[in-house]
Amino acid sequence: MLTTANSLLDLRSGSNHPLSLRYSEIFEAALLEGRFEHGRAQPGLALSGETPFVIAARKAVEFGLYQPETIEVIVASLTDYYLRVGPANAAVWLGLENTGSALLLAAPPWGAVFPWRARTQASYQQAYEAAAIAENRAVGREAGIEEGWLFCGPVSPDKIRIEGERILYVLQQIETKGYQRADSSDGDVKATALVNDNQEWRWLITAGNHRAAAAAALGYGSIPVRINLVISRVDALWWKHVAEGTFQLHEAQQVFDTLFNGQAIPAVQHWLNGKS
User: Fold this and answer.
1) In this predicted model, what pLDDT tens digit does every residue of 244-261 receive, in sequence order?
2) What residues pair up with 66 in beta bridges, in sequence order?
3) Residue 42 CA to its chain's centroid (Å)
4) What is the dihedral of CA 133, 138, 143, 148, to 10 degrees?
5) Cα(193)–Cα(201) distance, integer angstroms
6) How many Cβ atoms are within 10 Å of 221's Cβ, its own excluded?
7) Quick one: which of 34, 77, 111, 147 has the most CB atoms within 10 Å?
8) CB 96, CB 104: distance < 8 Å
9) 115-166 pLDDT, tens per residue?
10) What distance in Å separates the CA atoms of residue 130 and residue 132, rounded to the nearest whole number?
11) What is the CA radius of gyration of the chain?
């Protein structure tokens, strides 16, 4: 097994399985080759073609990446999604409309903490709110979560354009230079590994949605992904938010299964059905 800098274990030429990270002791993260058919984005969409970012990026590729109107093609595609997918709260976003959790029912979609996360629900929500500011600032816009969240509506026209500009920029960079990674903190798409009872694994993006969507749209079958958290379904009873009662055990397992299997929540499935 080769190692890279920053306590990163390269498993691509070895097991290429996230469970190897658990027993590596000295490494904080692992580099694996993630096939897009096994990639997942919130709220359970397969990166092989179902996410709004991948769909918009593919339309841009088909239209031509260097046409003046390309950004409008991306914006129109994203606008259709954001107008039609606007869950009322975190419970709906997780596919738990009938939950008894007052915490999830009161939280916005970006406050939908996963049952295995160590963060509190409030901390999880605040982290997304801080990330929204940083993401918008990266393209020269001063805007926060009040303008919308990248994963679902409602989203302001300015925020939609921000997301569109980010997708187009990454598409052009990868198309020109190829997909490149680095050992730096922002050098890879980051993901949580989800391991089922048969020890099969899927990767759920935690950072790098635009990068992954662009690579998928440009025809890549896989990309290197940096895994820093490995979640096994068999351990669900000991997940923080199950133990504390925010999720019932069956609800937590349902969230895991929805993500692992790439099952869209009803609102997103309705949107997908309209695309076919």
Assistant:
1) 999 999 999 999 999 999
2) none
3) 5
4) -70
5) 6
6) 11
7) 34
8) yes
9) 999 999 999 999 999 988 888 887 787 889 999 999 999 999 999 999 999 9
10) 5
11) 18
